[in-house]
Amino acid sequence: MADYDMQAYSAEINLVAAQIARAAADEYNKKTPEKPRFVAGVLGPTNRTCSISPDVNDPNFS
Questions:
Q1: Are 51 and 59 in contact (CB under 8 A)?
Q2: What predicted TM-score, i.e. pTM, was given to this entire model?
Q3: Residue 39: other Cβ atoms inside 10 A
Q4: C-alpha distances in angstroms, 61 versus 48, 51, 57, 58?
């Protein structure tokens, strides 16, 4: 979000997105409780590497 100078909105955007997903899952759980729905989150896409390797081209680098 920093690329667009919107980093101050990241937490709010993610919170509201999770709330919307939770509400949708809850709505369908009421209709068919035998098929529970879950909400999960993920990181991405990003222009930053998430590798802990100092060489991003070799993830096994020690």
A1: yes
A2: 0.65
A3: 14
A4: 18, 11, 9, 5
Average pLDDT over residues 10-36: 95
Q: Are 15 and 9 in contact (CB under 8 A)?
A: no
- In the chain, which residue ranges form alpha helices assigned H by DSSP? 10-31
Classify residue 37 as exposed, middle or buried by CB count within 10 Å of its CB (0-12, 13-18, 19+).
Answer: middle
**Looking at residues 16-34, what average pLDDT do you find?**
96
Please state, in angstroms and rounded to a whole number, the distance separating the CA atoms of residues 37 and 26. Answer: 7
Number of independent structural domains in the chain: 1
29: containing domain: 1-62
